[in-house]
Amino acid sequence: MMVHPHTRFDLPEALNAGEPPEARGVSRDHVKLLVAEGSTVTHTRFDRIGDHLRPGDLLLVNTSTTLPAAVDSASYTVHFSTPLDDGTWVVELRDGGAPMFHGTAGVRVELPGGALTLLAPYQSSNRLWIAQPPVADVLGYLQQYGRPITYNYVGKRWPLASYQTVFARDPGSAEMPSAARPFSFELVSHLASQGVLIAPILLHCGVSSLESHEPPQPERYDVPAHTARLVNWVKANGGRVIAVGTTAVRAIESATTPDGTVAPAHGWTDLILGPDRPPYVVDGLITGWHAPEASHLLLLESVAGPAQVQRAYDAAVEHRYLWHEFGDSCLILR
Fold it and tell me: Where is the secretion signal located (predicted)?
């Protein structure tokens, strides 16, 4: 049964960010930042996030690189979401920008450079399919024929570089782990000189499920040994662990025991944080703004509590923050 978030708000169309901040004359790290801590809401700019962090705090950053995961054919657009262990892929078919809910097993979808065959619905979804891809080397295929996944609120096509963060190193995300997009190399070095620690974590994002408010699908993740050790050291020494993005929360919590101890881990995670499973180790997160009813709101509520998340979202709508991957940012602390 899908649990729905407590946070409620109406998102005016004008607050959907339709282009990267750079196209609006704003550098990556100059997007707006709302800081929600306790009952206080502070409005600032992302490059001043260090004012709200302390020496010894640890930022967990997702090193996943965004793939050009959308391939257009004469009839459909195919979103390549996630490779499965047997060489098949989870895909989503879209028709005129909307998800297609009436696929049929055995159907061949003609694509440039080959055909994709639908095999079976994925995890009883009526939107996602397990498919045999056109070629064995899908990453190479996407580099040749793919483009970044876009949704209707983004008015035109932007280059793949617009969908990468400064931490991107490991190819694998269908959609950008966008919480880290506002970081610049200058800001990273400034935070490091301030004594803020940064450690890598990996979670490859599948296609988002904002249309249908589905819970997150299983995703591949990796918590390296050095990151696990650093998290344990930071917690033992009174620092805070702040995840950059819901992806980083999901990854680190998948490697954490109820007493808050982290061990190295990798593989698939189907962890869903919410009322029944609060975070054991994360003290806060840096995140973009999520659509009404999105399952990510449950994760935010599990970190900070529904009242604090509602306060943040009400303030963001009132002060006209911009939503989605090219929008503004939020630091929410327990």
Answer: none
Say which residues have a Cβ less than 8 Å from residue 287's Cβ, sequence separation at least 6. Answer: 179, 245, 246, 296, 300, 329, 330, 332
Give dist(CA 38, CA 245) in Å, integer. 20
Residue 275: per-residue pLDDT:
84
Q: For residues 36 and 29, is the Cβ–Cβ distance under 8 A?
A: no
Strands, DSSP E only, in 100-152?
108-111, 114-121, 128-132
Tokens (6 digits) for 148: 């970044």
In the prediction, which pLDDT does 4 show?
84
Residue 208 pLDDT exceeds 90: no
Sheet holding 265-269, edge to edge: 40-45, 32-37, 329-333, 284-287, 241-244, 58-62, 197-203, 219-223, 265-269
Helices (H), the chain: 138-145, 185-193, 225-236, 246-253, 296-304, 306-318
Q: Closest Cα partner for 229 from 273, 190, 197?
A: 197
Specify which residues 16 forms β-bridges with: 323
Q: What SS3 state is found at 272?
A: coil
C-alpha closest to that of 6 among 309, 314, 315: 309
**Level-2 CATH architecture, domain 13-66+159-333:** 3-Layer(aba) Sandwich (3.40)
On the 0-12 / 13-18 / 19+ scale of CB atoms within 10 A, 79 is buried
pLDDT by residue (tens digit) across 221-244? 999 999 999 999 999 999 999 999
> Side chain identity at 292, as an amino acid letter?
P
In 10 A of CB 59, how many CB atoms? 24
Indicate the pLDDT class of residue 293, thresholds 50, 70 and 90.
confident
Predicted confidence at residue 295, as pLDDT, reads 87
pLDDT confidence of 27, banded at 50, 70, 90? Answer: very high
pLDDT tens for each residue of 95-139 = 988 888 888 999 999 999 999 999 999 988 889 999 999 999 999
